[in-house]
Structures are given as structure tokens and as C-alpha cells.
Amino acid sequence: MTRGPKPKENAVRRNKHPHSQTLSAGATEGRALPPGLGIRTAGAKRFWKTWATSPQAAEWAETDWAELEITTKLVDEFYAGETKLAGEIRQRVAKWGATVEDRARLRMSITKDPEETPEEVSPEPTESDLDDELFRLLNEG
Question: Model's pTM, two decimal places?
Fold first, then answer.
């Protein structure tokens, strides 16, 4: 014997969190990498482009863009060999919802528009300097 009233047949969940947000999966226009940052590595340039065109960036305020600039400088130093910065970078990007787990914790979801057709996107940059950076990082230490 069960306790309580019988559940309704078409029960609807009504406890949606008031601060949850749903973002569109389409890439945003983003911003260009400020030349004054002095970014040298291709990995940091790719990091900027990835985050500047992410669905999260569509909702960013000026303070978020400033944080992206600081984090991109850290990523540039990381790719230059300062691997001790990995933990700091991970903490910063987690606040933007970098992984599925981070987005779940932030109550953030990204929806795909049904009318959007997937485009073939070539990874940028395609230069061999990305391979050179990775090879150098893996062979140090």
C-alpha cells in the first residue's frame, strides 16, 4: 500500500530553478583578439576564438570580457611552458561553463536549433605550430 495521493497521469515538473538559463547553440560573432594583449602562441589564439564565439559569450558583460583577456594571457603563458597555471585556468573556465558538468552546476543548458544544418568547420589554426607547441610541452620536464 502506497501513501499519499495517486500521481497525476501527465505530471509536469514545476521546480525549474529561477536562475537557470538556456543558450542557443549557434556561435556568436564574438570579439576580435585585442592586439594589445601581446598573445604569442597559437593555442592561446585558438582559446580566445573558441570562447569569444561560444554560446556563453552572447550573454557576457564587459567584466566577463575582461576576465577572458586575463585568462587568455594565462593560457598564453601555459602554452609558453608555464604548466603550473593549468589549475588556475581550469578554475576560471569552469565559471563560464566549460564542461558538461560545469554547465549542469551552473544550471546552464545549450539547445540546438532544429533548422540549423551542421557545417563542416575546419579547426583553426591549421598550422604546424600547434603540433610543435604540443610536442614541446610533452617533451619538457
Answer: 0.68
Q: Share the mean pLDDT of the chain.
A: 82
CA 72/CA 26 separation, integer angstroms: 22
- Helix count (H) and strand count (E) of the chain? 5, 2
In DSSP terms, which residues pair with 109 in a beta bridge?
Answer: 22
Nearest to 100 by CA among 88, 109, 90: 109
- Contact in structure between 118 and 111 (CB atoms under 8 Å): no
Q: Answer for the pair 59, 96: CB distance below 8 angstroms, yes or no.
A: no
- Other C-beta atoms closer than 10 Å to the C-beta of 80 total 16
| Domain definitions of the chain by residue range | 37-112+126-139
